[in-house]
Structure formats: structure tokens, C-alpha cells
Specification:
The complex is a heterotrimer of chains A (about 325), B (about 160) and C (about 500). Chain A is α/β, with parallel strands linked by helices. Chain A contains 12 helices and 10 strands. In chain A, the strands form 3 sheets. In chain A, strands 2-1-3-10-4 form a 5-stranded mixed sheet. In chain A, β1, α3 and β2 form a beta-alpha-beta unit. Chain A is globular and about 65 Å long. Chain B is an all-alpha fold. Chain B folds into 2 domains: about 70 residues; about 90 residues, no CATH class. Chain B contains 6 helices and 2 strands; from the N terminus they run βααβαααα. In chain B, α1 runs antiparallel to α2, α3 packs antiparallel against α4 and α4 runs antiparallel to α5. The longest helix of chain B is centred in the N-terminal third of the chain and has 24 residues. Chain B is flat and about 60 Å long. The relative contact order of chain B is 0.10. Chain C has one domain. Chain C is built from 22 helices and 2 strands. With about 500 residues, chain C is mainly alpha-helical. A two-stranded antiparallel sheet of chain C has the order 1-2. In chain C, α2 packs across α18, α4 runs antiparallel to α16 and α4 packs parallel to α18. The chains are: A alpha/beta (about 325), B mainly alpha (about 160), C mainly alpha (about 500).
Chain lengths: ~325, ~160, ~500
């Protein structure tokens, strides 16, 4: 552990030295940001949902601010690599990135020391709640049937999947089970390499439940291979009107979500951060962004830096508690 | 650089043992019989078995008492070993210099040095290095948007 | 019908045709240049296609990948450096052919059968996509476990003259694959607190290292000697092709079918297709002893298979939004980006776009013949470039190519480390190809094993309980038994 801190200390020192060398440039940059291309780090792979969101936002920012916003995929390590790249970049406004819900989870697992406070939050852009998907050949046609069956079955009979061990959809399952008064491992988690393989395993009969978000399950639902029984959100998603919430069917007020937002390294100049937040608000309100997000079925949610930080802090606490309950928390 | 198979076998043996030793402090997978240590241990054991088999085979074959480490005659020729080290060194140089200097000067110097060592005539060398650097930078950096390091060079050229 | 006519209209637009030609040139270049790969070509096209209309955007990706998978065969034969991972399985064989003076025959076969294999895969994509996707989607972790085992058996069957060292190489590859966050419990293994190592060992920079960089090291040592390139001109490409075709047309069909099936399976792509078809070719050949000495038979199987897999990988991608390989994983993102959400409805909502993709696929594979021919001819110019210029240039592309895979210096570090490791292994008679296969299959093997164990509550019998899994399991065990029996008999005889 100490080794990692040392290394980060070194990186921070090097970044500081770099920033000092850049000082004349940085001073000039502040007068009219941005004066050169901006790098937008995406911790997830090209072609995925986060990548798509990053690219649409980058394209709008580019048009608005007149400098290229280059999306750079820094993938791997369950998101640790990309999130580290954002946090350790020079805080000059020329490296920002899309951070995701994993930043509130990874440090509880001992994968990194980074947490939501390691960043300068710029804006929250999107939240997707998990759904409860079963195969079309499943005997359970409503969330009530499924919940009853889970409750009355011995632990381990039902298997669920959707992402890696300790990932967001795993925690969604744990939260739901706990809200029903069951143990977190009553339904064992089958780790998968993302939502798409999990949905395939659902169709192949390998698992019984997949708790990924409804847009991630959409292709399989459209194909008639799976159905969404409920979403774990306060209210229904207007794009999937027929899927009820847990609250209205089971009276369970549990809700959680995978979110995406933009942030920079800690210590960004306030005027640059403000300029970016203003540009992001414009992008968020644009028809282009709204159309794009609804075409993918992604939910749109806005929060300005202070609200975003509070949202992350709250999520961080909830995730920590859920992970501790499931025995996933380290240290 | 050819090691005697017995020496190679010992290296693989050590590697297999290290692989297993490194898994000893791996946590169990909550609620499961098998955890993250299972696969490395199987592989480590496999390596040890193969290494032993290799050792026995080499021991049987090497009655003549071949040297434990046979250095290729080519590796004793400074020009040849220089070429080998230069290819490795070029990568190391790029890793050390690219962030600071920027892609363009680093790539240019790298090409220049390698071609000079390999005996390309200075004028051809200069021309090829210039054209290649410019072409790679334009194609990958500009057209394909690969985030090639900007470094000091772009700071001076592009201002900031 | 109107949709098909519309589709032709969309493709035969001058702008789209221009994009197709430009991406063909791009694909051929990326494929033929060691250090740059088809996956990277697709990833690089994402920002470029972002601003295009759906049809040119998809046309660019289809054309570039089809060309790149073929073009990877060119440096494999000329320089013993596979241009893309999909050519790695038979790079040695091709190079041996070139050494025997059969470079023309090798490249001719690679060109023609890449195009034919590609057309085979596309034909299946067009005619049977829904049905085949229905089959592929039934694969659960149990089936994948057996499939990964069969893939590993290929490494042994392909073999070298030293199976023991081949097996060690395979174990090294599997071991290296354990680095990073483990696929089941999410525990970081062998990372020493390093953030980059947590992302694991990216197999593309590794492949560039063991194949290209180690070859460059050998080339740099012998800069004044003849080597690296065995032949400095290319003669008539299609001489002898007729004879080979008459003799091995069944191999074409078998290779294409294997390629199509493997391509259509989510998660397995052109590289694995090439390995498997090459191994199958050797297993069922009348002259297995000729394999590895510069024999065209296995090359024909494998080069048909990897191009067939390119089209087939689109089957699960289009029908279920599940990637068939690393290329279609990116394609799915592009489809979404263009409002063509994958799923069976994509055939109903935007049929003209899907037909346009099919037309582009056919066009790309037909264009492969003249453009590929020109590329091989152009490679003659490359061969004329003196080695002392060529080595630094290829090294530059290896550096940029590895960098672009991780967008960080980590890719270059991997490439360099595995370049040196690959050089040392080859010096000591340890083949490097099994190492790459181990790295590719390692995660699939471990993930499918662990998740199967979780699902079955720790019972091994469940691995045989499902019909497809049971069949695959019996086949695997049969292959293991046959191989062991053969080895035992040989040991007793020898």
C-alpha cells in the first residue's frame, strides 16, 4: 500500500514540476480557455456506452469552444487505469475525463486510493438505474412472482449476473436482496465481462437473473430473448414506459444507478472549471445531446459541480455500506 | 545467447515456484471453493512438471558436457551486439524522452540515430527521418487523433 | 426489394465509393505494416467515422478490416512478422515457403483464398444470420470452457519440433495472462500496486513484441547479412494456383466453415479461427509431416478461415448486439452511434442500411483481388528498400501502434519487454506462437471455468450436462486421449 502512495506522490510531484514549467503558457491559457486541443479521457473501451456519451459531449464542446476535444480511451483494471489517468493529469484544464460510478466503489475494494474527492467535479450528465431482467422462457412473468420465488427458495438456487464481482449491478442485486430482508449471498453472483455477455448467458440459460440497466438489455429484449420485470428507480423511465418500479410493485423504496459525469484533476483553476461547466450545461440542454441519449435509451440527469460532489459523496457512502454487508470491502 | 536446456529448465522451475509462492497470500473467493489463486497454481505446477521433464531430457542428452551458456559468436562482434542493443535502446529512449520532448523530435532523433548506426548515407538518412516523422505524425496524430505526446516541442511551436 | 435498390443507391454514391477505396488502402497499409493491426484500424476509425453518415461509416470499417486481415499475410510471408494477430498461426509456415522460393505461391493463395473465404463468411452472414445467431447464443460458460480447452489443444497439435518447449511457452502465455484483475473475484493479481498492470497484459502490444520487435532485433544484428527478407522480388503470383486449388478445394470449404462458426461465436474472432483451422488441417492431412516445413495446405485452410470469420463476427453483433470479436465490439458502438440499434429489429427498421453493409462486404472482398494484387506488387517496392532503412521505419510503426492500443507508454513497455523475452525464447528453441495463444485464451478459460463452477455449485458433472457442452467435452477428452496415446506410442517406438 505504501508503495502505491509513494508512486502517486512521485507522479503528483512530477505533475507539479510540469505545471511550473508550463507557467507562462498556463497564464496565457487562462485568459481565453482553451487555446489548444483538450484531451477527454474515457476509462472504458471504444464503442461502449461511456465512450459514446464521451464522444457526443466532446463533439458538442468542440463546436462550442472552438478547439478539438479528443476522446482518449484509457481502459482496463475495472476502470482504475482511466480514473487514475484523469486524477494524475496536470490540472490545467487540458486533460479532463468522464468519471463513472466505479469511482465510488473501487477504493472500498482496495483497488485504488482514488475516491470522488480526488477530482474537480464539472457536471453530472447521466444516470441509468438497474433493471431486473429474466429470460423469456423463465416461469416468472412479473417481479412479484420472481420475488416470491426467490424468497421461498433455498439460498443459491437462483443465480444472477450482469458485470464483474463487486461491480455496480452486483451491488444493485445486493441492495435489492437486502431490501427484501434476504442475505446478500442468497442469490450468488456469477461474474461476467460486462452486461452483453451476461445477457447472452441469460438467453443461453446459464443464469436466471441479470440486473444490468434496461438500455444495456434492450437488444436482447427487442430480440424476444429477455424481459425486463422492473427497474430499481424512484420512477419509471419514459423510454421504457411498461417496466414498473420496485416501489410500485413490491413497495420497496430501493433505488440505485450507474452514473456518468465529467471531471478534471483536483486543483483545476476555478475560472476554467466554471467555463467548462457552463459549456457542459449548454451541451446538456442541446437537442443533439438529448436526441442521442434517448436513441440509446440512456437517462439524462444534470447536476452542477456542488450537486455532483454531494451526489457522489452520498453514493460513496451507500456503496461502502453495501459492499461491507456483502463482504466485498477491504481494509 | 543459448542457455543449456538444463539451465533453462532451472529458470522455468524457479518461475513456476515463484508463481505458486506469489499466490499464497491471495484471498479466498467468498462462498466459493476456488479463488483467484487456483489458476496461477495450476499453471505454476504445470511449469514445474515441464521444467523437470526438460531437465531430465537435457541431462540424458548432454553427456558430452556442453557449456551451460553458449554465446552466439555474433554476440561477440561489437557491431552486431551494438545493432541489437540499439533496437532495445531506441525503445527505452523513446519511453524516456517522448513525454518531455514531444513525439516529433523524439521520433526524428530515433530514426536518425538508428539509420546512422546502420550506415545509411547522411543525406538519405536526414530526408527519410524527416519524411517519416512528418508522415507518421500527420497520419496518426492529426488524422487518426492518436494522443501522441506533445511535449516541449509543441509548446514552443503551437504556443501553450 | 425497394430496400435493396435503395441500398445499392447508398453504396454506389461517389462519396461512399471514395470512402471504400480510401479505407481499402488504409486497411491494406495497416495490415501489411507490422505493428499496426486490424483491431487498431477499427479503433482509429471510430473518431473519423463519428462525423460520417451511417453507410460510409460502416463501409469504412468493413472494408478496412477485411483488407487488413488479408494484408497481415504479406509481412508474415516476407519478413516472418505477422501483420495482424490473425496471421500469427501460419506465419512460420508462410516464411518457410518463402525460404523455399514459393513466396509467389504463398501470397497468391493467401490473396485468392482470403477473398473467397471472406465471401463465404459474408454469404453465411446474409443467408443465415438469424439462424446461426440463434445457435451461437446458446453458448454458455460451460460450452466456452470446452471451446477454450480445444483451442489450447490446438497449440499442442500445431506443435513445433519440440512439443515440450511448446507446452512451456503455452504455460508462460497463460501465466502472463493471469496478471491484472482476475476475471472472477475481481482481485488484482501480480500487479505490485501498479495501475497499468491492473489492466493486464494487452495482447496486441505483446504480439507486436514477440513477433515484430524480436525479428527486428535479429535483423539489426545481421544488418549486413542476407536475412530478414529471403527474396527481393515477387514473380507471377497465380502460377501453380490452379493445381493447389484442384488439390485442396475441400480445405477451402472446411477452413471457411470453421472460420464462419468460430467467427459467429461471441468472443472468438479471426485469430482463434486461424489457429483452429490450421490445427484441424494438420490433424486431418494426409501429409501432416510436411506441416511446418513450408507446406501450402494449412495456409490455405487458415487464410480462408480468418477472412470468413471477419464477416461471421457480424452475425451476433447485428442480431443480438453481442460482439463476435474485438472488431465488432467497436462496430456495435458505431451502430448505436448511427441510430441503428442492434437487434433483430435492425433488419426491419433500417433494412436499406443492413443491405448496404452486405453490399459493401461483397464489394470489399471482390476489390481485395485487384487491390491486394497491387499491394503485393507494391510490397515489391518495400522489398527494394534497404534493410537499414526498413528496420528503423518498422520499429517506429511498432512504437506508435503499441502506444495507440493503450494510449499510454505502457503499450510500448509491454512491446519492448516481450520483444526481448520473445528473442530469448526463440534463441533457446522455445516457439513463441503458443505464448500468444495462451494469452488470448487464458482469460476465456479461467472466466468460463470459474463462472461454471459458481453456477454448478462446484460440481464437475455439470460440465457435461448440457447437450452442446457435453458433446464438446467428449470431443475435447477424445482429442486429449488420442494425443496422449500418439505421444506414448511414439515414445515407445523412438
Amino acid at each position: 500500500m505504501t508503495r502505491r502512495i509513494d508512486r502517486r506522490g512521485f507522479v503528483a510531484g512530477a505533475a507539479g514540476a510540469g505545471a511550473a514549467a508550463l507557467l507562462p503558457g498556463a497564464a496565457r491559457a487562462q485568459s481565453k480557455y482553451p487555446t489548444r486541443p483538450v484531451t477527454l479521457v474515457c476509462p472504458w473501451g471504444a464503442g461502449g456506452g461511456t465512450d459514446a456519451t464521451a464522444r457526443i459531449v466532446a463533439a458538442i464542446l468542440e463546436k462550442d469552444l472552438g478547439q478539438p476535444f479528443n476522446v482518449v480511451n484509457r481502459t482496463g483494471g475495472s476502470g482504475v487505469v482511466g480514473h487514475s489517468a484523469i486524477a494524475t493529469a496536470a490540472p490545467d484544464g487540458y486533460t479532463i475525463g468522464m468519471i463513472t460510478v466505479e469511482i465510488t466503489m473501487m477504493h472500498h475494494q482496495g483497488l485504488t486510493d482514488l475516491n470522488p474527492t480526488s477530482y474537480t467535479p464539472l457536471a453530472l450528465l447521466n444516470v441509468d438505474p438497474p433493471g431486473v431482467q429474466v429470460s423469456t422462457s423463465s416461469p416468472y412473468k412479473t417481479i412479484k412472482d420472481l420475488a416470491e420465488a426467490i424468497k421461498s427458495s433455498p439460498p443459491g438456487k437462483f443465480k444472477a449476473s450482469g458485470t464483474g464481482q463487486g461491480g455496480i449491478w452486483h451491488l444493485a442485486l445486493i441492495g435489492w436482496l437486502q431490501a427484501m430482508g434476504l442475505k446478500p449471498d442468497h442469490v450468488p453472483w456469477v461474474p461476467s465481462n460486462g452486461a452483453a455477455p451476461a445477457m447472452q448467458d441469460l438467453a443461453a440459460g446459464g443464469v436466471d437473473i441479470v440486473t444490468c440497466s434496461v438500455p444495456e438489455a434492450k437488444a436482447m429484449i427487442d430480440a424476444g430473448k429477455a424481459v425486463s420485470l422492473a427497474i430499481m428507480a424512484p420512477e419509471r423511465n419514459p423510454l421504457f414506459k411498461d417496466v414498473p418500479t420496485l416501489n410500485e410493485t413490491l413497495g420497496i423504496k430501493y433505488s440505485v444507478g450507474a452514473w456518468r459525469g465529467l471531471a478534471g484533476p483536483k486543483g483545476m483553476p476555478a475560472d476554467i472549471a466554471a467555463a467548462l461547466t457552463a459549456a457542459l450545461k449548454k451541451a446538456y440542454d442541446s437537442k443533439e445531446y438529448k436526441d442521442f441519449m434517448s436513441s440509446r435509451g440512456f437517462g439524462v440527469t444534470w447536476a452542477e459541480p456542488a450537486g455532483f460532489a454531494a451526489y457522489m459523496a452520498e453514493g460513496d457512502k451507500a456503496m461502502g455500506a453495501a459492499m461491507a454487508a456483502a463482504g466485498l470491502k477491504k481494509g | 545467447m543459448r542457455f543449456d536446456d538444463r539451465l533453462a529448465a532451472l529458470l522455468f522451475l524457479a518461475l513456476g515456484a515463484t508463481l505458486i509462492a506469489a499466490t499464497l497470500n491471495f484471498p479466498a473467493f467468498p462462498g466459493q471453493k476456488y479463488g483467484p489463486a487456483l489458476f496461477p497454481r495450476i499453471l505454476g505446477a504445470g511449469l514445474i512438471v515441464c521444467a523437470l521433464a526438460l531437465f531430465v531430457r537435457a541431462q540424458r542428452a548432454a553427456a558430452s558436457g556442453a557449456p551451460l551458456l553458449r554465446i552466439d559468436p555474433a554476440l561477440k562482434d561489437p557491431r552486431r551486439i551494438g545493432g541489437l542493443l540499439l533496437v532495445v535502446g531506441a525503445n527505452v529512449f523513446y519511453l524516456l524522452a517522448a513525454e518531455r520532448l514531444g513525439f516529433i523530435p523524439t521520433a526524428f532523433l530515433l530514426l536518425l540515430a538508428l539509420m546512422a548506426w546502420f550506415g545509411v548515407r547522411p543525406l538519405t538518412n536526414l530526408a527519410v527521418a524527416l519524411v517519416m516523422t512528418a508522415a507518421v505524425h500527420w497520419f496518426f496524430g492529426t488524422l487518426m487523433r492518436v494522443p501522441l505526446p506533445r511535449g516541449l516541442f509543441m509548446q514552443i511551436v503551437a504556443g501553450g | 426489394m425497394t430496400a435493396i435498390i435503395q441500398a445499392f443507391g447508398l453504396v454506389l454514391d461517389p462519396y461512399v465509393l471514395g470512402v471504400i477505396f480510401a479505407s481499402a488502402a488504409f486497411g491494406l497499409f495497416v495490415g501489411a505494416m507490422p505493428g499496426l493491426t486490424a483491431t487498431m484500424a477499427t479503433a482509429l476509425l471510430v473518431p473519423v467515422t463519428f462525423f460520417m453518415a451511417p453507410v460510409p461509416a460502416l463501409a469504412a470499417i468493413v472494408t478496412a478490416t477485411a483488407m487488413a486481415i488479408f494484408a497481415g499475410d504479406i509481412p508474415a510471408a516476407m519478413l516472418r512478422m505477422p501483420g495482424t494477430p490473425a496471421s500469427a498461426a501460419y506465419a512460420d509456415e508462410s516464411y518457410e515457403m518463402a525460404k523455399k522460393g514459393q513466396l509467389e505461391l504463398n501470397l497468391g493463395v493467401n490473396l485468392v483464398y482470403s477473398a473467397l473465404g471472406g465471401l463465404f463468411g459474408v454469404a453465411v452472414l446474409i443467408l443465415a444470420a438469424p439462424a446461426l445467431a440463434e445457435l451461437a447464443i446458446n453458448f454458455s460458460s460451460f460450452e466456452y470452457f470446452w471451446l477454450a480447452c480445444l483451442g489450447l489443444m490446438c497449440a499442442i497439435m500445431i506443435g513445433s519440433n519440440d512439443p515440450l518447449k511448446g507446452f512451456i511457452s503455452l504455460l508462460l502465455g497463460l501465466g502472463v495472462g493471469c496478471i491484472g484483475i482476475d476475471p472472477a473475484a475481481g482481485f488484482p493479481r501480480f500487479t505490485f500496486g501498479n495501475v497499468d498492470l491492473m489492466s493486464g497484459i494487452n495482447f496486441i502490444p505483446t504480439m507486436i513484441g514477440v513477433f515484430a520487435v524480436s525479428e527486428l532485433m535479429r535483423g539489426a544484428m545481421a544488418i549486413d547479412l542476407h536475412g530478414l527478407m529471403v527474396q527481393d522480388k515477387v514473380g507471377a503470383l497465380f502460377r501453380g494456383l490452379g493445381q493447389v486449388s484442384r488439390r485442396y478445394w475441400k480445405n477451402f470449404l472446411r477452413g471457411s466453415m470453421i472460420g464462419t462458426l468460430i467467427g459467429a461465436l461471441p468472443g472468438a474472432g479471426a485469430d482463434i479461427a486461424a489457429w483452429v483451422s490450421y490445427a484441424v488441417s494438420k490433424r486431418f492431412s494426409k501429409e501432416p509431416e510436411k506441416f511446418g516445413t513450408g507446406h501450402i495446405e494449412g495456409v490455405l485452410d487458415a487464410t480462408s478461415a480468418n477472412n470468413a470469420a471477419v464477416g461471421a463476427a457480424w452475425i451476433p453483433a447485428l442480431v443480438f448486439g453481442i460482439p463476435g470479436d474485438s472488431i465488432t465490439a467497436i462496430v456495435i458502438g458505431v451502430l448505436y452511434m448511427k441510430g441503428m440499434n442492434p437487434g433483430p429489429t435492425v433488419f426491419l427498421q433500417n433494412p436499406q442500411f443492413i443491405y448496404a453493409v452486405f453490399i459493401v462486404f461483397i464489394l470489399a472482398n471482390l476489390l481485395m483481388l485487384p487491390l491486394g494484387y497491387a499491394a503485393i506488387r507494391g510490397a515489391r517496392a518495400l522489398l527494394a528498400v534497404p534493410k537499414n532503412v526498413l528496420i528503423p521505419t518498422i520499429l517506429m510503426f511498432c512504437i506508435v501502434g503499441s502506444f495507440a492500443m493503450t494510449n499510454s507508454p505502457y503499450g510500448i513497455v509491454l512491446m519492448l519487454v516481450f520483444g526481448v523475452v520473445g528473442w530469448l525464447l526463440e534463441e533457446n528453441g522455445v516457439p513463441v506462437a503458443p505464448l500468444i495463444l495462451g494469452l488470448v485464451l487464458g482469460e476465456l478459460l479461467e472466466q468460463s471455468f470459474m463462472t461454471s463452477m459458481i453456477k454448478s455449485d462446484g460440481s464437475f458433472l455439470t460440465f457435461f450436462a448440457r447437450p452442446i457442452a457435453g458433446t464438446l467435452g467428449v470431443i475435447t477428452l477424445g482429442v486429449v486421449a488420442a494425443t496422449a496415446w500418439g505421444a506414448w506410442r511414439r515414445a515407445r517406438a523412438g
